[in-house]
Amino acid sequence: MINEMCVAISSALAVPEKAVKLTVATMAA
Question: d(Cα 1, Cα 24) in Å, to the nearest integer?
């Protein structure tokens, strides 16, 4: 779980829009 969050944060720094969708999908799941 923690590793996935770190990856999500890294993705957010690289691609904010894509990371937002990923975060929403993760929270929904």
Answer: 15
